[in-house]
Amino acid sequence: MIFHVLTIFPEFFEGPFAYGVVKRAKDAGVLEIRIHDLRNWTNDRHRTVDDRPFGGAEGMVLKCEPIFSAVETIWPQRRTDQKVILLSPQGRLFDQAMANRLKQNAELLLICGRYEGVDERVAEHLADEEVSIGNYVLSGGELAAAVVIDTVARLLPGVLGNEASSAFESFQEGGHGEGLLDCPQWTRPAEFRGWKAPEVLLNGNHGEIAKFRRSAAREKTAKLRPDLLE
Ligand code: ADE
To answer: Ligand 1 mean position to 205 CA, how many Å?
Structure first.
């Protein structure tokens, strides 16, 4: 899968994809991440990407021309498995189900919003989807793009060492997770400062362990995320 990112801060992405699962997937050729500097599609001496909002308001708005030019250069024709996603706090909320849907595409192009907003014609006439990663306002879409790429990347076949492992974690429907939180885990030592790991996990009875994990997952979900049980 190929991820494109359109941003005015290309250096921002040197960090997030240089470690762990995503790095290994890149090295293995399972995915490719191409960072595009929006200023490459400006025509003036100052490489202007923003302007004052019509009607007057605080701050600056990202202009539509460089964004349209960039997307149309990257994809002169767009196939149905090449999707443009605008990251913004006004978007539809990103979740595991959306990640599973997005991973079906061959390529995604993520546009990172900035300043007080992006000219609305980008959302209306260029982006397939406007996506938010949560009900809070970031200073730009870069962190959001990194979150979306990380989440989708680890669902791709061949990215996680153990193919089964993404099917059994929090929010993933179909595994024993059933859309609940992941079950809590313990590792050695079996006792730390008087706090013991649950005995049942140490006794090697796989039937009992599976039963314990299901009920622990349900208990934790009821306590921290009762909304998931509805
Ligand atoms: N840009 C600013 N805030 C955002 C958010 N919550 N999600 C996606 N992009 C954003």
So the answer is: 46
How many other CB atoms are found less than 10 A from the CB of residue 11?
9
In angstroms, the CA 107 to CA 66 distance is 20
Angstrom distance (rounded) from CA 158 to CA 129: 27
Q: How far is C-alpha 216 from the chain's CA centre?
A: 27
Mean pLDDT of 28-51: 97
Judge if the beta carbon of residue 137 lies within 6 A of ligand 1: yes
Query: Ligand 1 centre from 149 Cα, in Å?
Result: 14
pLDDT per residue over 54-88, tens digit each?
999 999 999 999 999 999 999 999 999 999 999 99
- Cβ of 136 below 6 Å from ligand 1: yes
Q: What does the alpha-carbon distance between residue 18 and residue 20 come to, in Å, rounded to a whole number?
A: 7
CA angle 97, 101, 107 (to 5 degrees): 140
Helix (H) or strand (E) holding 208: helix 206-224
Residue 226: asked if its preceding bond is cis (omega within 30°), the reply is no
Q: Which amino acid is at 142?
A: E
In which region does residue 12 sit, left (phi positive, over 0), alpha (psi from -120 to 50) or beta (all else)?
A: alpha
